[in-house]
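STRUCTURE:
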C-alpha cells in the first residue's frame, strides 16, 4: 500500500522542501526584525511628520501598506514553522522504527526549533500589526477632527453636511457575542 513510484516521488519532494522552508523561515525572521525597526521609526519620526503634513490619503496609503506587511508576517511565519515541524518528523519516525535514535533526536530538534521560530515571528507580526493599526487609527482620527474644525474637510461645506467616514466594525463584537451566548447556555445548564 505504501510503496510505488508516486509515494517515493512524494517523499522525495517533501524531503527536498525542508531546507528551503528553513531558509525562508530565517529570511522571514530577519524581515520581522527589520519591521520592528521600521515600526519604531514610524512611531518616532514618520507619524509625527505626517501629523504636521495633514495629508489623510498619504496616511491611509502608508497604513495599508505597513499593516499588510505585518499581517503577512503574522500569517506566513506560523505556516512555515508548521511545515518545518512536519517535514523532519516523517524521516524521524521512520528512523525510530529502525532503532536509530540519533536521527530521531535531530528530527525532533529541528521540528521544535522551526515551530518556536515560526510562532515567535507570527506573534511579533501580530503585535506590530495591532500597534500599527492603533497608531494609524489615532492619527487618522486626529487629522479628520482637525480638518473638520478648520472646515477644510473635502465635501464638508458646512457642519450639518459633515459625516465622518463609516469604519468597519471590529471583529471583536461578534466574538464577544458568541462567547456570551456560550457562557449563558453553560450557565443555564448548570443551574
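SEQUENCE:
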Amino acid at each position: 500500500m505504501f510503496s510505488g513510484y508516486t509515494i517515493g516521488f512524494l517523499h522525495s519532494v517533501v524531503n527536498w522542501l525542508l531546507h528551503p522552508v528553513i531558509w525562508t523561515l530565517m529570511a522571514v525572521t530577519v524581515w520581522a526584525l527589520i519591521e520592528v525597526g521600521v515600526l519604531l521609526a514610524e512611531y518616532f519620526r514618520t507619524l509625527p511628520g505626517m501629523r504636521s503634513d495633514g495629508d489623510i490619503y498619504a496616511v491611509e496609503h502608508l497604513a495599508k501598506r505597513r499593516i499588510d506587511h505585518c499581517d503577512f508576517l503574522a500569517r506566513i511565519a506560523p505556516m512555515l514553522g508548521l511545515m518545518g515541524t512536519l517535514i523532519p518528523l516523517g524521516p524521524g519516525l521512520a528512523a525510530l522504527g529502525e532503532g536509530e535514535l540519533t536521527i530521531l533526536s535531530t528530527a525532533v530538534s529541528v521540528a521544535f526549533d522551526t515551530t518556536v521560530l515560526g510562532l515567535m515571528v507570527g506573534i511579533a507580526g501580530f503585535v506590530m500589526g495591532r500597534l500599527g493599526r492603533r497608531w494609524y487609527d489615532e492619527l487618522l482620527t486626529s487629522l479628520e477632527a482637525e480638518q473638520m474644525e478648520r472646515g477644510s474637510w473635502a465635501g464638508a461645506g458646512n457642519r450639518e453636511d459633515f459625516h465622518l467616514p463609516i469604519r468597519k466594525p471590529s471583529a471583536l463584537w461578534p466574538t464577544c457575542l458568541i462567547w456570551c451566548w456560550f457562557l449563558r447556555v453553560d450557565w443555564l445548564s448548570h443551574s
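REMARK: Residues 5-155 form one domain.
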